[in-house]
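Readers outside the structure-tokenisation community will struggle with the description of the input data as it stands. Showing the layout once, in full, would remove most of the difficulty. For illustration, here is how one protein appears when written out as sequence plus structure tokens:
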Amino acid sequence: MKKPYQITVNNTFDFKIDKKDILNLDSLKISDSEFHVLYNNISYKTEITKANFQEKSYAVKVNNTVYHISILDELDILIKEMGFEIGSIKEVKEIKAPMPGLILDITVSVGSEVKEDDTLLILEAMKMENALTSPRAGIIKSISVAKGDTVDKNQLLIEFE
């Protein structure tokens, strides 16, 4: 069985290619991001100008025209057919205490805009300081604790908008 790749160009054109198509591509690597491609006896100068490997999206310049390309492999296609979203954003709405402890510091305030992995607060538990970080980008809706408070496991600490 051939393992197809679903290619979408500029969110408009969809087509499938397989490994045989890729292996038959006549291309020459010029640099890390530039290639010379020969297709149907026509020469193309190509350059990968942006690459997001996690989202499998690329911007490719072909003879000075930029195309936005997304690539789905066999597993991505199966996940999409099952109705799941690929690369969907995290919908975490609240942060709860992972263990009982003491709030040593709160580094955000209500209305603060945070990015994923920003430190939200410091929780001391079992004589260790634990930095609780944001699981996603967002805006702080409410803070249910104050510096110096003791908290129980699963107690609400912070809510996101």
User: Anything to note?
Assistant: The mean pLDDT is 87. The longest strand covers residues 42-52. The CA atoms of residues 25 and 39 lie 7 Å apart.
